[in-house]
């Protein structure tokens, strides 16, 4: 359960990072690419949600690693007040001391 809880915390850290247009210290590695996708053409962000797929657990060079696909959906408004919603898939990988996110595919 510890691995799954750590992965969930990592996914939530990515979600929090996406809510801000500016990078902050402690943001998960790989966040800039996902943030650029999320904020593209948006003036204001209204929400960031996510849906997870079953993660996998393994040990690589003695380090416990959990990785899984996460579908992020962002909604917001352009400067002309038109509403925008978009979805992308990203892989979130966690170890006991590290969170990494990689944009995999833009879905909408």
Concise summary:
The protein has 108 residues and is α+β, with helices and mostly antiparallel strands. The protein is 24% helix and 47% strand. A hairpin with a 2-residue loop joins strand 2 and strand 3.
**Largest sheet: number of strands, sense, barrel closure:** 5 strands, antiparallel
In the CATH scheme, what's the topology name?
Answer: Nuclear Transport Factor 2, Chain: A
Percent helix, as a range, is: 10-25%
* Euclidean distance between termini CA atoms: 33 Å
How many beta-strand segments?
5
CATH C-level label:
Alpha Beta
Structural class: alpha+beta
Whole-number mean pLDDT: 95
Counting DSSP H or I runs of 4 or more residues, the number of helices is 2
Q: Order of helices and strands, N to C?
A: HHEEEEE
Tell me the overall shape.
elongated
Secondary-structure arrangement, i.e. CATH architecture: Roll
């Amino acid at each position: 359960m510890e691995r799954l809880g750590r992965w969930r915390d990592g996914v939530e850290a990515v979600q929090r990072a996406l809510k801000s247009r500016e990078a902050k210290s402690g943001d998960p590695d790989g966040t800039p690419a996902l943030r650029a996708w999320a904020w593209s053409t948006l003036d204001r962000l209204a929400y960031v949600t996510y849906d997870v797929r079953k993660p996998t657990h393994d040990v690589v060079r003695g380090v416990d690693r959990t990785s899984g696909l996460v579908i992020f959906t962002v909604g917001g408004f352009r400067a002309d007040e038109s509403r925008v919603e978009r979805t992308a898939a990203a892989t979130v990988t966690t170890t006991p001391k590290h969170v990494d996110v990689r944009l995999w595919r833009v879905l909408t």
